[in-house]
Amino acid sequence: MQLYMHIILDPPSNPTQTPEADHGYQGNEFFKSGNYLKAAALYTQAIKLDPSNHTLYRNEAKSRHFEYWKDIGYMYIHNRAAAFLHLVKLNKALADAETAITLNPVWEKGYFRKGCVLEAMERYDDALAAFQIALQHNPQSSEVSKKIKRLTKLAKDKKRVQEVETMRSNIDMAKHLDELKSELSEIYGADESWKEIFSFVVETMETAVKSWHETSKVDGRVYFVLDKEKTETDKYAPVVNIDKAFESPHTHSSCFEFLRQYAVDSYSHAACLVAPKSIISYPQVWKGQGSRKWKHGQDDGFFVQFESPFSRKLWFVPSSTEKGQILCSDPVVLDISVHEVLPRLFKFGR
To answer: How far does the signal peptide extend, from start to end residue (predicted)?
Structure first.
């Protein structure tokens, strides 16, 4: 929180020394020494004694010092707002800043103080509006101009942080899989089982994205849609770990052969592979040349490969860090004939 200690106002010399002036000057001295609590208490005493305080003096025109104080009484309110700001009593600081503006609507520093308080509250749009009014009353103020520049960036950054958080929490992979949805619907026709397979792919991808957002990683696994009637569930699980599959051509080939047989023996209808880019030593499909050249940058992320007897699809989900948060971008559709992570698991049209 950036605070501006130097904008503390000393009332002009009063030909008649008054208690309120004495309290005000003492408050300023305590403020400058960093004793903001004592400063606030002294400003409060000065405000209570100030004849221009309309809440205490209903008949202001009759006050002996009114003409003197009506032009400077708001300074104590302003200074107390500064003290409250340092004490992080933000609601009280804001109330004082708004009172100072009411007492002197054309005074730049009242709006400046309000802007500083709103900035501390992280109400950046409101703070920016207050600083812009301050600039209208003093267009030459470099300090206000700097604040506006700073707040414009802070407001933009805060908005983006909120957008990133919304994207992290509102994960909807289905909207990116329309092509797969249409293809499955056409292949299976009146057979409603395609909906189960489509939901399986969506759920697998969304679970992977959520895991990546929370832990910055996903486990290398293959998920299977098992036959509800034929699969011996005591022998075949719906998930197979493949974290060692990509260490070498040999482990890759062995894993592929195992998975292909597993799909047959478990009577699986479809499968989804999820593999983080970081664990793949072979095949590094993003290092291809010529027609196999990778066109999707060097971002970290993970692959999702869908396998079924009638359809194969491949996506890469890029990841980056934005505003201190891990964020997965929209899945990128890859040409599976060029970038497949594993060869075909199901015999076509089985």
So the answer is: none
Q: Which residues pair with 303 in a beta bridge?
A: 275, 316
- Rounded CA gap, 293 and 67, in Å? 82
Q: Which residues contact 328 (CB under 8 A, 6 or more apart)?
A: 209, 212, 213, 301, 317, 318, 319
Residue for token digits 């499968």? 271
Least Cα distance to 331 among 162, 181, 206 occurs for: 206
Phi, then psi, of 321 in degrees rounded to 5: -110, 125
Which region among 72-76, 93-97, 196-200, 343-347 has the lowest average model confidence (pLDDT)? 72-76
Integer Cα distance of 101 and 114 in angstroms: 9
What 3-state class would DSSP assign to 272?
A: strand
- pTM, rounded to two decimals: 0.69
Q: Convert the pLDDT of each residue in 222-253 to its tens digit.
A: 999 999 999 999 999 999 999 999 999 999 99
CB 204 within 8 A of CB 277: no
Nearest to 24 by CA among 61, 69, 90, 55: 69
> Domain ranges in the chain?
19-166, 172-334
pLDDT at 59 (0 to 100): 37
